[in-house]
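Appendix B, record 7
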Amino acid sequence: MKRKLLMAGGVLASAAGLFLWGRAPTATPVAIVSAAPAGVGALGRIEPASHIRKLAQPGGFSVNRVETLTVREGDRVEAGQILGTLSDAIQKDAAVLQAEAAAAEASAQLAKVAAAGRPSEIAEQQARIASLIEQERITRLDAERAEQLVPSGAGARATAERNRAAAARATADRIAAIAQLDTLSHPRPEDVAVASAQLRSAESTLARAKADATLSRVVAPIAGTVIKIYARAGDLIGGDGLLDLADLDRMDVVADVYETDLPRLHSGSIAEVIVPGDTERYRASVREIGWIVRRTTQAGTDPVAAVDARSVEVRLTLDEASVKALRQRTNMQVQVAISP
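Structure tokens (predicted):
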């Protein structure tokens, strides 16, 4: 009896194997119908496409008291707009003015050295040289006459020597005047080099002062909307910074998609976004699939859920109508259904 049961079991197993491989000789072939690809469901959050920019004091924590704040929550700002100033702004602005004056003085000094002498000074020196040349000619004639009279006894040797000295002095004065004219007409290279170095030093000081003054002002890095202010005039800036800024004209949904669902995703996939408590369904499309697989951050209460589930951040772009409806719901948790 036991042997018959074993034989019957073997026959059934062989038949099952043939059926699975589709090779049963007496069975009629059955067409295999593949199931439609399933979509992907995930939890996500609403977030500006620009991300939330947290602005604090640019110069670190040395000065962190707010002097002025020029915006309010909900204000639209442009890139480069000054949103607030710190308490040391006045002191640093004064340093900029002082550096500008020093740079202007150094520039004027370089121009003076490079120009050497003024046209009036050069003309005056040229006239002086002409006068000295004439004086030299006269003193030379006097010296020559005195020398000629010494042998005949008509002139004294002392007078001749004085005339020679006067002629030599006139020659020296002429040479010195010509050298002075050359100095007035052509500046010395070493003087120009020194003045140029002083100007560069003054300009670098000015640039540093302007950079320091910039660090006393909080400037918008992008065009967007002020969505949260943490410190106002007179307050100290804490760990949260001064304010949060985001571009609400473009909104995303950041979905945490399980790693096993990634093969069914591709850029451009259409998705439906479900907001808790809202009957409206919002449309979005997959724009970016993240590069890092990490532990799932969405909290759950399911006791049998995987405790080490891993997911990838997928960014979906909301359409224009959805952006208008959800632009004030940053960080709200939503449900996402992505079509295959």
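Remarks on this record: The radius of gyration is 47 Å. The mean pLDDT is 81.
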